[in-house]
Structures are given as structure tokens and as C-alpha cells.
Specification:
By secondary structure, the chain is of the alpha+beta class. The chain contains two helices and eleven strands; from the N terminus they run H-E-E-E-E-E-E-E-E-E-E-H-E. It is globular, with a radius of gyration of 16 Å.
């Protein structure tokens, strides 16, 4: 009985990957989730951080410039001196493609390719705090995965 259940889960996972047609499905090596965050790590150690719920309020600064993978594997803005880690909205995904990675919006459209220019709203925070809606677990996981400042993505212009 136990073996049949394991096989069912394995078949379900394979079917889910096929149904979702995620090219990056085989490229993922880990997902670390907290109450409010999901940190997906790819086979080449890229850490892609998303919120797990919609934001109640957003900052409105405009980011226009390069977003790439830093030496620590974190997706960071290269246009700001402190190179904050980007925290993407709920539903955004990272797809592994030939020659790199691209970020997709919740609707599946491509926002941009890492290493190139991106335009989106939001703002930089010195730290993720309870006042911003982050739990202590969120704070600890983020600080460990990608130390430093964070850009919380808000509004993203339509393609």
C-alpha cells in the first residue's frame, strides 16, 4: 500500500510538471517557503524570491535598469549602489532558457531576462520587518538567503 502511494505521488508530480509545461521544472533544486515568501533555487543556484500573497499596499518608486544574478545567487538590482535583492509579486516565476533566465508575470508574459534592463515599480527597504507584513521566520529566511537591502516590487507596467 505504501509503495502504491509513493508511486501515485511520483506520477502526480511528473504529471504536474508536464501539465504546467514548465521548462524549468527539472532545473529546480529547492523551494523554501514561509508564511509570506517562496524562495526557489535553481540548479545553477539562482535564488528567486516571491511573495505568497498579494500586497495590501505598494511603494511607487520606479526601477529602470539592469537586474542580474549576484555572486551569492540572489537576483539583485545592479542600478542601485546597495544592489538590493528583488522580491517579486505573487505569481511571478523564473524560467530557465537557453543562455539564462527570464522573469514571467503572473499572466505568463515575459517581464525581462536576467542580465538585462527591467522596468517596474516598488521601493527599497533597509530590512524586511513586521511593519511591512513579514513574520520573524520570513525575516530570518530572507536575511540568511540574501543578506542586505531589498526592493519590494510593486506595480509593473503592462507589456
Amino acid at each position: 500500500m505504501e509503495r502504491r502511494l509513493k508511486n501515485r505521488w511520483t506520477h502526480a508530480a511528473v504529471a504536474l510538471c508536464a501539465v504546467l509545461a514548465l521548462n524549468a521544472c527539472s532545473e529546480l533544486i529547492g523551494v523554501d517557503e514561509t508564511a509570506n515568501l517562496s524562495i526557489v533555487t535553481t540548479q545553477d543556484d539562482v535564488k528567486f524570491i516571491t511573495l505568497r500573497a498579494p500586497q495590501n499596499a505598494v511603494m511607487e518608486a520606479l526601477h529602470t535598469g539592469n537586474v542580474s544574478v549576484a555572486i551569492d545567487g540572489c537576483v539583485r538590482s545592479q542600478e542601485i549602489t546597495s544592489q538590493p535583492t528583488i522580491v517579486w509579486p505573487q505569481g511571478y516565476t523564473l524560467e530557465t532558457i537557453v543562455g539564462g533566465h527570464q522573469v514571467r508575470r503572473e499572466d505568463g508574459s515575459v517581464l525581462g531576462q536576467l542580465g538585462e534592463a527591467f522596468t517596474f515599480g516598488g521601493g527599497v527597504v533597509e530590512d524586511v520587518t513586521a511593519a511591512l507584513g513579514f513574520t520573524e521566520q520570513d525575516q530570518n529566511v530572507l536575511r540568511l538567503a540574501c543578506p542586505g537591502r531589498f526592493w519590494i516590487v510593486g506595480e509593473v507596467p503592462a507589456p
